[in-house]
Amino acid sequence: LVGYTNAGKSTLFNALTDGGAYADDRVFATLMTRTREWDLGGGHMVMLSDTVGFVRDLPHHLVASFRATLEEATHADLLLVLLDVSDPSAELHYETVMNTLEELFDDVEQLEVKRAEQAKRDGAGDITRYERPELLVLLNKADKDEVDEQDLLYWQSRAVGAIPLCALRGDPEREERPLGQDELIEKVKAISIGEIQELDITVPLSDSKTIHTIENRTEIVDRTYDEKAVTLRTKIGKNQLAKLRSAGARMWVMHTNGEPYFKDDEKRGWVYDPTAVNIDF
């Protein structure tokens, strides 16, 4: 979560995570980054961080420490940019945040270039290239009387995909969340999961953990069992699949046309063949 100071970041952070961050109507109410788990539902969890607020014309002696704190945000997968659209200075605040982020991104990219050059000189090979995080603008206090439809249309034209939002915590006795929070959750879930693909994933019956994860966190289209394994035809996110693979899950992944999804599966030593007499799971 990033944004101009006093935009409502800590309020939204608390509403989404029950994180207990200090929320107050004054400048610099948050002085350090806090991170908590955010339950998106359906077994999907992400880490959400509440950051120090951006501010225009920051006193020189504070610039270094604030930039060091904010630089943590440059390595996130997604930046939620919170903007108080009821504030008369919203335009100035938006420009300040975007310009500061651009400076931070440039700094990180320059540092990564130097690291890559040093790694090359040291013969260490290529290092992972830095990718800027995706930005999602949240139009906080969109439910206020002073914010009309024209204001929201303007901001949604400035920031494509921006979500009108109320950052307040909802009533626990009511299922309905405040304005925009359901849409935000679905958007973050989609980004976290990645592009949805329909695939056939074969998992040994002995690996109940992987089967349980796929069954509970993806949309199962069909199941086929044999003596040693289950093949789940599932709609699964690209990022979900990558996490399963990196966690060492033993699975044979196929496109629905029968082509292997991972080209190096044979090199990894396990290609599933249900007709084989001996399969070492």
Describe the structure.
With 281 residues, this protein is of the alpha/beta class. The chain has helices spanning 9-17, 60-70, 90-121, 149-158, 181-193, 208-217, 238-246, and strands at residues 2-3, 34-41, 44-50, 78-84, 134-140, 163-165, 196-204, 219-225, 229-237, 252-255. The strands form 3 sheets. A 4-stranded parallel beta sheet has the order 1-4-5-6, with helices on both faces. The chain has a 4-stranded antiparallel beta sheet with strand order 8-9-7-10. A two-stranded antiparallel ribbon has the order 2-3. The longest helix is centred in the middle third of the chain and has 32 residues, at 90-121. The radius of gyration is 23 Å and the shape is globular. The model is unreliable at 26-30 and 276-281 (pLDDT under 50).
Q: Which descriptors apply to this entry?
A:
281 residues, alpha/beta, Rossmann fold, Alpha-Beta Plaits, 4-stranded parallel beta sheet, 4-stranded antiparallel beta sheet, 33% helix
Largest sheet data: 4 strands, parallel
Average pLDDT number: 84
Number of helices: 7
Q: Helix coverage percent of residues? A: 25-40%
Q: Give the C-level CATH assignment of the largest domain.
A: Alpha Beta
**Architecture of the largest domain, according to CATH?**
3-Layer(aba) Sandwich
Task: Please tell me the total number of domains.
Answer: 2
Spell out the CATH superfamily of the largest domain: P-loop containing nucleotide triphosphate hydrolases
Instruction: Let me know the number of strands.
Output: 10
Anisotropy-based shape: globular
Uncertain residue segments: 26-30, 276-281
